[in-house]
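In response to reviewer comment 3 from the previous cycle, which asked for concrete evidence that the modeling workflow produces usable outputs, we include below a single protein chain processed end to end. The sequence was submitted unchanged, and the resulting C-alpha cells are shown without manual editing.
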Amino acid sequence: MEKNKRDIVKMLLNQNLYEKDEEEIIDLLINNPITVDVDKENDSKMTFGDKVADKLSEIAGSWTFIIIFCAFLVIWIIINGILLVNAIDPYPFILLNLMLSCLASLQAPIIMMSQNRQSKKDTIRNKNDYRTDLKSELILEQLYDRLEKVIQNQNRIMIYIKKMSEKEDKK
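The workflow returned the following C-alpha cells.
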C-alpha cells in the first residue's frame, strides 16, 4: 500500500500534540529543511544584559575565580586580623561578611538567569533534534517503499526472463 508523506508523518507524530502543532510540523517536515543552528539563533536574540549575565556566570564558575577569591579572603583575614592594629574590619570581620552576602545575593540571580537561558536553548535544541529525527525517519520510510518497488520490479523481470527462457527452450 502506497503511503504519501503526510500519512507517514501523521503515523510518526506523537498523539499528544495539538492539531495546530501537528499541522505545523507536517508542513515543516515536508516542505522545508529543518536543521537550525540553535547557538547562532539564540546569540542573535541576546540582549546586553544577557551577554553580561553569561560572561559573569562564565567567570564566577571558573577555578580561576575560586582561587583568586579564596586568596582575597585569606589576605583580608591576615591583614585585618593579624597585621593591622587599627584594622578596617577587625575580627569577626563584619564588613567582609556584608560584602560576601551582597556578592552572593547579586551573583545567584545572575547565574540563574544564565542557566534559564541555557535551559531554553536546550529545549530548542531538543525540539530541533526531534524534528530532524522525524524527518530522517520519514526519508527512511520513503527509501524503504522505493526499495520494495525495486524488488517487486526485479522479481517481475526475473519471472519474465524465466518465462522467456522457458519459451526459448520449448522451441
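The chain has one domain: 33-170. We consider this sufficient to address the reviewer's concern, and the full set will be provided in the supplementary archive.
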